[in-house]
Inverse folding.
C-alpha cells in the first residue's frame, strides 16, 4: 500500500501534465509516413520561415502525428530523419500525410532496444534487423540461418537440420540470450534455447540487440535479445491474401506452406502453416517439422486494441551422434513440441500515455533417446508470463525541453516443469516450480541530436532472490544531413546482466548431480562504444563497434565424492573485441553488406585449471577469434538474386571422447537463392546451400551438410 501511494504521488502530476499538453489547440498538423504508408515516429519536424529560419520544432509521435500550435504565414514544414530523404512542404498542407522516401541505405524502426518503437539512428545499442524482404529473398528454412550473418553472433549446429542449434553472442554462453516471440519469452527456465525447430515461415522480421539487456527484460538477457515478430494482416483491401509455396531437392527434402492474411473493418488476421521433411545425410538423420501460427487483432474504437497470438511446432530428428568418430546410433532421436499463446490489450489512454497488459503461456516438451547409452530423457517446461507496461511521453521535442519518455514495466513469471529419464530407475525426476517478479523504470530523453536511455530493473527471483541491474545507452549525432559525408553517430552503452540457474542446477534431487538452492545468479558487466558514418548521399554506411564483457559467478558442476556432485558459482570468463559492418547500395536494386568480428575470449577461473579446453587462460569453447560474412542482394527486372558467404575461424572445441582433439578447423559456406517472377503473382524459386561442397563441422564430431539444392514455386493471390 505504501508503495502504491508513493507511485501515485510521483506519476499523477506527470499524467495530468501530459493530458493538459495533449489538449492544447493546434493550427498546423499532419502525419509522417513512408512509401508503404507505415507511420514514422520520432521524425524531426520543423516549421521554417520563408527566409529559412526555424520558427518551431517538434517530433512526430508514435502514430506519426505532429502538431504546431501557431500559424505561420509563408512557412514550410520540413521533415527529416536519417535513413529517409528530407522533405520540405509549403503551407498550407494540401493533404495531412507527408511521405518520406527511403534512403538507399535505410534505417529501421526498432522496438526491442528500448521497449518502445524507436528509429535505429536514435538507438545507442548495437542492433540488427532482418526484415520481411530479406527473409523472403534468402529462402532459408530456419531463423538460425539468418543469425549466421549477424555481427558478433555465432551459430553452432550439431550436424544436419533439426539437431541441437545454439547461439553465442559476443563471447557469452549459449544460454545468455533472451528469446522473444511477439513479446512472449520462450527460453527454457535458466536461459537455454534450441533453435533447431524455429522455422522462418510466417515471420515478418527479427530484431537482434547486442549487449546486456536485463534492465529491460530481466533474467537471461546477459549478452543480447533476439525478438521474432510474426506476420499481421494489413488493410490494403478487404479481401484475404493467400500465399502458397513449395520446394523440393537433395536429401529427399520437401518443404511447403500456406498462409493467409487480411483485414476486415477493425479486425485483422494472419495465419501460416508449413511442413518440412528431409533425410539429411547419413543413416538415422531424418528430420520432420510441422509449424503453424495465428495472429488476430481487433480494434475497439480508436484507443484500444486487443491482439491474440498462437504458435505451435512439432518436430522429430534422428540423432546418429558424433559420426566423424563413432558409428551412428541407429535408434537415437530428439523430438520437440513447442506451443506459445498470448493475449495483449493496448490502450492509448491519452495522446501522451500508452498502456499495455499481456498474459502469455509457453510450453516446451523435449524427448531425447539414445539407444547406445540406454537413455530416454524428458524435459517438459512451462511458463506463465504476465506483463504490464506504461509509457508516458512529456514534451513535443522542441529545442528547449526536448522530449522525455518514461516507461514503467512490471512482470511476473511462473516457471514449472518435469525433468527426468524414463529409461532409468536410478535417477529421481525433478518437479520444479519458481515464481519471479521484476519491475523496470526507464527514462528516454530526446534532446536535439542527443538521445539518452537510462533504466534500472529490480528482479526478485525464486532461486537467487533480489538483484538490481542498471543500463545506460547514449547516441549522439555529431553530424546530420546528407552529402558525400553524411550523418555521423557516436554511441556508448553500459549494462549489467543476470541469469537464473536452470531447474537442474537449482532443484535436482539426484545425489549424482544435486541441485543447489543457494546458487547466486550468473552475472555480466559490459561496456561498448561505436561510430556509424553514412556516406555518398546515403548510398553507404560504415559501423565500427568495440565491446568488453566480463562474466562471473558462472555455475559449474563439482564432484563431492566418487559418485556424487553438485553445482557452485565459480567460473569467470571475459570477452572483448570489435565489429565492423559495411553496407552499400552502389546502384539501384543492388545491396552489398559485409561484416567482420574479432573476439578475444579467455577463461579466468576454472575448477579444472590445467584442462586443455576448459583450463585457465584458454579461449572460450566454440567461439572463434575471427568470423564474418558477405551478402549480396540484387533485384533486376524479374529476377531476385541473393548470395551469402559465411566465414568462421578456428575455435576451441572438444571431442568429449578422450581422443585429445581440442580445436575445430575454420570453414566457409556459400549459399545462393533466386526467385524469377514469371508473373506478378507466380515466382520460380531455387536455393543452393554450401555451393562449393565444403566438408566441415560446426561442432566437433558432427559433420555438417554437404552441397544441397532446393527448387520450387511461390504463388500469391
Amino acid at each position: 500500500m505504501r508503495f502504491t501511494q508513493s507511485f501515485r504521488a510521483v506519476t499523477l502530476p506527470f499524467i495530468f501534465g501530459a493530458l493538459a499538453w495533449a489538449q492544447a489547440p493546434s493550427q498546423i498538423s499532419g502525419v509522417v509516413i513512408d512509401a508503404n504508408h507505415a507511420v514514422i515516429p520520432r521524425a524531426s519536424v520543423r516549421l521554417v520561415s520563408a527566409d529559412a529560419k526555424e520558427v518551431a520544432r517538434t517530433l512526430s509521435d508514435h502514430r506519426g502525428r505532429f502538431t504546431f500550435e501557431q500559424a505561420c504565414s509563408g512557412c514550410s514544414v520540413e521533415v527529416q530523419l536519417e535513413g529517409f530523404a528530407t522533405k520540405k512542404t509549403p503551407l498550407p498542407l494540401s493533404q495531412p500525410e507527408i511521405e518520406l522516401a527511403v534512403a538507399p541505405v535505410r534505417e529501421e524502426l526498432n522496438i526491442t532496444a528500448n521497449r518502445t518503437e524507436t528509429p535505429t539512428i536514435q538507438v545507442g545499442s548495437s542492433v540488427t534487423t532482418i526484415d520481411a524482404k530479406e527473409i523472403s529473398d534468402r529462402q532459408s528454412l530456419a531463423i538460425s540461418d539468418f543469425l549466421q550473418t549477424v555481427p558478433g553472433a555465432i551459430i553452432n549446429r550439431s550436424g544436419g537440420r533439426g539437431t541441437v542449434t545454439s547461439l553465442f553472442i559476443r563471447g557469452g554462453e549459449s544460454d545468455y540470450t533472451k528469446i522473444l516471440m511477439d513479446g512472449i519469452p520462450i527460453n527454457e527456465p535458466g536461459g537455454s534455447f534450441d533453435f533447431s525447430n524455429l522455422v522462418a515461415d510466417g515471420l515478418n522480421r527479427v530484431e537482434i540487440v547486442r549487449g546486456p539487456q536485463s534492465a529491460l527484460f530481466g533474467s537471461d538477457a546477459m549478452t543480447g535479445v533476439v525478438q521474432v515478430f510474426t506476420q499481421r494482416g494489413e488493410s490494403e483491401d478487404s479481401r484475404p491474401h493467400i500465399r502458397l509455396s513449395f520446394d523440393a531437392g537433395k536429401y529427399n527434402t520437401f518443404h511447403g506452406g500456406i498462409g493467409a492474411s487480411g483485414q476486415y473493418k477493425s479486425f485483422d488476421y494472419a495465419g501460416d502453416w508449413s511442413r518440412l521433411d528431409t533425410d539429411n545425410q547419413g543413416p538415422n538423420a531424418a528430420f520432420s517439422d510441422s509449424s503453424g501460427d495465428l495472429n488476430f487483432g481487433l480494434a475497439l474504437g480508436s484507443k484500444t486494441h486487443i491482439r491474440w497470438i498462437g504458435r505451435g511446432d512439432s518436430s522429430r530428428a534422428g540423432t546418429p551422434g558424433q559420426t566423424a568418430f563413432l558409428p551412428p546410433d541407429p535408434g537415437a532421436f530428439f523430438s520437440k513440441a513447442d506451443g506459445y499463446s498470448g493475449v495483449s490489450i493496448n490502450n492509448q489512454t491519452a495522446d501522451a500515455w500508452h498502456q499495455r497488459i499481456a498474459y502469455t503461456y509457453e510450453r516446451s516438451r523435449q524427448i531425447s533417446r539414445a539407444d547406445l547409452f540406454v537413455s530416454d530423457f524428458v524435459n517438459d517446461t512451462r511458463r506463465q508470463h504476465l506483463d504490464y507496461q506504461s509509457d508516458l511521453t512529456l514534451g513535443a521535442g522542441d529545442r528547449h525541453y526536448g522530449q522525455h519518455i518514461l516507461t514503467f514495466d512490471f512482470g511476473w513469471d511462473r516457471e514449472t516443469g518435469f525433468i527426468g529419464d524414463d529409461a532409468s530407475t536410478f535417477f529421481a525426476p525433478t518437479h520444479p516450480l519458481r515464481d519471479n517478479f521484476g519491475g523496470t523504470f526507464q527514462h528516454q530523453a530526446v534532446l536535439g541530436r542527443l538521445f539518452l536511455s537510462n533504466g534500472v530493473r529490480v528482479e526478485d527471483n525464486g532461486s537467487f532472490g533480489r538483484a538490481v541491474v542498471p543500463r545506460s545507452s547514449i547516441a549522439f549525432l555529431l553530424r546530420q544531413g546528407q552529402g558525400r559525408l553524411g550523418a555521423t553517430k557516436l554511441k556508448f552503452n553500459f549494462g549489467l546482466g543476470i541469469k537464473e540457474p536452470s531447474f537442474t542446477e537449482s532443484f535436482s534431487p539426484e545425489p549424482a548431480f544435486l541441485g543447489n538452492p543457494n546458487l547466486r545468479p550468473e552475472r555480466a558487466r559490459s561496456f561498448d562504444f561505436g561510430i556509424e558514418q553514412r556516406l555518398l548521399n546515403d548510398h553507404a554506411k560504415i559501423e565500427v563497434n568495440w565491446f568488453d564483457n566480463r562474466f562471473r559467478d558462472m555455475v559449474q558442476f563439482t564432484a563431492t565424492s566418487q559418485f556424487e556432485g553438485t553445482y557452485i558459482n565459480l567460473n569467470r570468463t571475459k570477452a572483448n573485441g570489435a565489429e565492423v559492418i559495411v553496407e552499400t547500395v552502389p546502384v539501384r536494386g543492388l545491396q552489398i553488406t559485409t561484416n567482420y568480428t574479432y573476439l578475444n575470449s579467455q577463461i579466468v577461473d576454472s575448477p579444472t585449471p590445467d584442462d586443455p579446453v576448459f583450463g585457465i587462460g584458454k579461449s572460450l569453447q566454440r567461439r572463434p577469434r575471427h568470423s564474418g560474412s558477405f551478402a549480396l542482394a540484387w533485384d533486376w527486372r524479374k529476377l531476385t538474386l541473393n548470395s551469402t558467404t559465411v566465414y568462421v575461424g578456428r575455435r576451441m572445441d572438444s571431442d568429449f571422447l578422450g581422443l585429445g582433439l581440442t580445436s575445430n578447423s575454420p570453414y566457409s559456406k556459400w549459399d545462393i537463392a533466386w526467385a524469377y517472377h514469371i508473373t506478378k503473382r507466380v515466382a520460380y524459386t531455387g536455393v543452393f546451400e554450401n555451393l562449393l561442397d565444403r566438408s566441415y563441422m560446426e561442432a566437433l564430431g558432427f559433420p555438417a551438410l554437404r552441397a544441397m539444392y532446393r527448387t520450387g514455386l511461390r504463388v500469391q493471390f
User: Anything to note?
Assistant: Residues 228-716 form a domain with the Maltoporin; Chain A fold (CATH 2.40.170.20). The helical segments are 2-22, 132-138, 143-147, 214-217, 503-507. The chain has two domains: 22-99, 228-716.
